[in-house]
Design a protein that fits this description.
Shape of chain A: globular
Structural class of chain B: alpha+beta
Number of helices of chain B: 3
Distance between the termini of chain A: 29 Å
CATH topology of the largest domain in chain B: Protein Transport Mog1p, Chain A
Largest interface: A-B, 67 and 63 residues
Radius of gyration of chain A: 22 Å
CATH superfamily of the largest domain in chain B: Mog1/PsbP, alpha/beta/alpha sandwich
Order of helices and strands of chain B: HEEEEEEHEEEEEH
Largest sheet of chain A: none
Strand content of chain A: under 5%
Order of helices and strands of chain A: HHHHHHHHHHHH
Distance between the termini of chain B: 82 Å
Shape of chain B: elongated
Radius of gyration of chain B: 25 Å
Structural class of chain A: mainly alpha
Oligomer: heterodimer
Number of helices of chain A: 12
Chain lengths: 341, 200
């Protein structure tokens, strides 16, 4: 099998999984959609600003340049279809087992926090892994994994919010479906949105980024296909942290706000660490390349900044010059992404 | 960039490695998505309740109600969460007891309309007859009506709590051939409902 055929196999599998997940979601909620169409539309439309703002912000947060639009969208779609649909089935199964094995009282308190972290974090992470397999240039290191993970989590979070909105109609006896949906939206976006799924999958995704980085280094240096031990450790540590964040988030006990704050702080600290080291590596590379006349001094000053690159492009004399400059920027940025990851 | 300074192409995983990881991802997804439901289906999903057992439904002592079951009732653990719902069986009779949080206290009149829509959402083609007032043994007033859905009949009832902050809804469905027996068992359960006194 050729490399192209293996990549095609990954992409087809991902599309099949997303279709399956979407079908499960529709099957589970079709009756509520039919009886409460206006509230269902409200629940879905209310999530659009969250999706748009989250999508734009996550891509902006990737230092130096945004990840591919197509694969950012693919990550979002995986989170909102394959991961949510499969998690619905997996969670129903495991929650049922907790209730049967440990009793309904225990399950009422603990089944969410013992079920969702395991099922949902792994199913979301499968999407990040599939992006790494389907588009090898998209995830080259922890920063890439973190951004693609955040987008996957965001898709999951938005669709889960819609399902919670629909469930809120039932839990309030359908006495005021629109109000129930808006209350659920207020809680899940206004209060817990900053520390929810996107933070957890961002952390787990960074682990996949580390794994890819070490695997590429090992493959390049020794030609070995065995999983690198450092990569496995980093991926497991990040996944365990994400599961821990999720367990804390769903566990009964302290109020929601401290849990949201903890998750948000974890992801911000990890992001700042990864961003700082990526940007400093990128700048060091550009300084070296400027010294070796690989790039000009002006390029070394401007290439790590989106704003300065755009300014350079605006200064181009003609469309042809602009196209050449754009191609040049893209060529150097590709190399930075590859070597600074 | 000069030709001799071009970066080495980044190592790309060979197809067999990519397919190996794809197989791992697919296997993990199948185990989680199919494995847990399969394991759940293999474990018995009923818990016999002793006659006279009293069950509490609701998230806290003040926001809760109690009801008592007679002989022959089973609890369905996988569909029961004492904070929000009980799924019970008695022979072919299926009963759901639901805790309904009211968004505000003025929504008591909407309970019946909401219940009608919820039974439609749960059972396509279901019809809920006009409500009549019912009073529990403890003196709490509620509404009840006859429910029919696809060859099944039963009762649906709604009981607002004295605090008006929540309500308990009971939906019972069983085969038409055992209608009278099922209605009697449901009524006994329904009339046993007790709420904590409303805060002064």
């Amino acid at each position: 099998m050729t490399i192209a055929a293996s990549i095609r196999a990954v992409r087809i599998t991902a599309i099949v999984a997303c279709t399956f997940g979407a079908a499960v979601l529709i099957w589970q909620f079709v009756r509520l959609l039919a009886v409460f169409p206006a509230a269902a539309v409200l629940a879905a439309v209310a999530e659009v600003p969250l999706l748009v703002v989250g999508f734009v912000l996550a891509r902006l947060l990737r230092p130096v340049r945004a990840p591919s639009l197509t694969w950012s969208g693919a990550a979002l779609a995986w989170g909102g279809t394959a991961a949510t649909g499969c998690a619905l089935l997996a969670n129903q199964g495991l929650t049922g087992l907790w209730a049967k094995g440990a009793g309904v009282g225990f399950a009422a308190n603990w089944s969410a926090s013992l079920t969702a972290p395991l099922n949902e974090e792994i199913l979301k992470l499968c999407g990040v892994i599939l992006v790494a397999l389907a588009a090898p240039s998209v995830i080259r290191g922890p920063v890439d994994g973190m951004i693609i993970g955040a987008l996957t989590g965001l898709g999951f979070q938005a669709v889960e919010n819609v399902t919670y909105g629909l469930n809120a109609i039932v839990l309030t006896g359908a006495t005021n479906p629109d109000r129930a949906v808006l209350n659920s939206f207020g809680l899940r976006v206004g209060m817990t949105g900053l520390g929810s799924h996107w933070t957890m999958t961002a952390v787990a995704g960074a682990g996949i980024g580390y794994f890819v980085l070490y695997a590429r280094q090992r493959l390049g240096q020794t030609g070995s296909l065995r999983p690198p031990r450092r990569g496995v450790l980093a991926a497991c540590a990040c996944l365990a942290t994400a599961m821990g964040m999720h367990l804390l988030f769903d566990a009964p006990g302290p109020g929601l706000l401290p849990k949201v704050a903890i998750n948000f702080i974890v992801v911000v600290v990890l992001y700042l660490m990864l961003r700082t080291s990526f940007v400093s590596r990128a700048r060091a590379l550009l300084t070296d390349w400027a010294g070796a006349d690989i790039v000009s001094a002006a390029e070394a000053r401007t290439l790590t900044s989106r704003l300065k690159r755009r300014r350079e492009l605006r200064r181009a004399d003609s469309p042809a010059d602009r196209a050449r400059l754009l191609e040049r920027q893209s060529e150097v940025l590709d190399r930075i992404d590859s070597e600074a990851a | 960039m000069a030709a001799d300074q071009q970066p080495q192409p980044a190592p790309v995983a060979p197809p067999r490695l990519r397919l190996r990881w794809l197989s791992v991802v697919v296997a993990v997804m199948v185990v989680l998505t199919g494995g847990w439901p399969l394991a759940n289906a293999l474990v018995a999903n009923r818990h016999r309740l002793a006659a006279g057992s009293t069950l509490r439904i609701g998230p806290s002592a003040t926001d809760s109600a109690r009801f008592t079951v007679g002989p022959g009732w089973l609890q369905v653990p996988s569909q029961t969460n004492p904070f929000i719902s009980y799924a019970l069986r008695r022979g072919s009779l299926q009963v759901s007891v639901l805790f309904v949080a009211l968004v505000n206290t003025s929504q008591k009149p909407e309970l019946w309309t909401g219940l009608r829509k919820l039974v439609q959402a749960g059972n396509p083609g279901a019809r809920l007859g006009g409500p009549v007032t019912v009073v529990t043994t403890a003196g709490n007033r509620g509404l009840t009506g006859t429910l029919t859905a696809g060859g099944m009949t039963g009762l649906a009832s709604a009981f607002p709590s004295p605090s008006k902050g929540f309500a308990i809804e009971i939906v019972a469905l069983g085969p038409r051939t055992r209608h009278l027996l099922n209605v009697r068992a449901t009524r006994l359960l329904m009339l046993s409902l007790r709420f904590p006194p409303a805060p002064r």
